[in-house]
Design brief:
mainly beta; Jelly Rolls; 2 domains; 2 helices
Length: 334
């Protein structure tokens, strides 16, 4: 069975024999950017796709901040790429959309490679808040390339051309595609908010957007620590998620350096205490230096408590220990 291969599609270099044309996406990001898998949110991303979306975040843009989904291709010739469609959800209007990048190389000499990039601000590439979709045009001037060992091409690196011109080029017409990526970022200034890539179709074949074995859901794992302060019996906000995100708790540790024992509470939302919203509880422990000064809880496979979209994590103590308490949380945003 070859579920990723379309029998009547002429593909090069062993794709039919190998039984696959498209591999599972690999998520990458750099600097202020972020990329993660998402299946739960409060917006309308679930209206499209197969249930998983790729959450890309560009962040503060300094020219090299980006998130991307890399889709491996099993050596399709550049000349065989005839169609690409993709859709994505933007949380706010941007100066750039989610653009396609076509990674090619000489199939007989891997020292020769190039990336053919669609301009992120190209006319017709959706940049409005909400759902956007794009159908690749072969004839629109909107692609440029950079690469290594590209002697022999009739095109100039950094100059924009149509994809049809790359497909007709003396050099690139004989090169194959090793991967196609959908990218978000690379701007010189501004801040790029979250976007969710939901659907990808290439040459009439839907590409599965779902995690590979071992992938985790959400963004990178982070750890933050905070001491109690002032009157510690008054709830204090410890964590606030980014817009349209939820906090997933991986582990919690609490320490009390005071001789005065106190329960240390950690919970979602802004309730006056954990008992005010019992369904929001994350963790509690009785701690004091005379007996047991610390407590800890972790969740296997990273499937700890999950807050609502935009919901903060609060901490407080049952007895005032001023600045003697400390809470450390490991978490990620989904």
């Amino acid at each position: 069975m070859k579920p990723r291969y379309k029998d009547d599609l002429a593909v090069a270099i062993g794709a039919q024999e190998a039984g696959w044309l498209f591999g599972l996406p690999v998520l990458r990001y750099q600097n202020n950017g972020m990329a993660g898998w998402c299946k739960e949110n409060s917006l309308s991303q679930w209206q499209k796709g197969g249930g998983w979306t790729v959450n890309l975040y560009g962040g503060s843009q300094t020219g090299d901040d980006w998130g991307a989904a890399f889709i491996p291709l099993n050596e399709m010739y550049l000349t065989q790429l005839t169609e690409a469609l993709w859709s994505y959800y933007l949380t706010g209007a941007q100066t750039m959309g989610v653009n396609i990048v076509i990674w090619v190389h000489d199939p007989t000499d891997f020292k020769k490679r190039a990336e053919i990039t669609q301009v992120g601000g190209a006319s017709g590439l959706g940049k409005a808040a909400g759902w956007n979709s794009h159908s690749l045009s072969l004839s629109t001037t909107q692609f440029f390339f950079y690469g290594e060992n590209t002697t022999g091409t009739g095109l100039t690196a950094g100059t924009q051309y149509s994809l049809a011109q790359f497909q007709a080029d003396t050099l690139f017409k004989d090169w194959t595609i090793s991967r196609i990526s959908f990218e978000y970022g690379w701007e010189a200034s501004g801040t790029f908010a979250d976007v969710w890539l939901a659907e990808v179709k290439i040459n009439g074949i839907n590409v599965q957007l779902r995690p590979s074995p071992g992938d985790h859901i959400g963004g990178e794992i982070k750890t933050v620590t905070q001491k109690t302060a002032g009157t510690s019996t008054t709830a204090a906000t410890m964590l606030t998620p980014a817009a349209a995100k939820r906090i997933r708790i991986i582990s919690v540790a609490a320490t009390n350096l005071s001789n005065t024992g106190s329960e240390i509470e950690v919970y979602f939302h802004t309730g006056a205490n954990m008992d005010a919203a019992v369904s929001k509880a994350i963790f509690s422990a009785w701690c004091d230096t005379d007996y047991v000064s610390s407590g800890r809880q972790s969740w296997p496979e990273g499937e700890g408590p999950l807050g609502a979209v935009g919901e903060v994590v609060s901490i407080r103590t049952s007895v005032d220990i001023t600045t003697n308490g400390r809470v450390t949380i490991t978490y990620r945003e989904e």
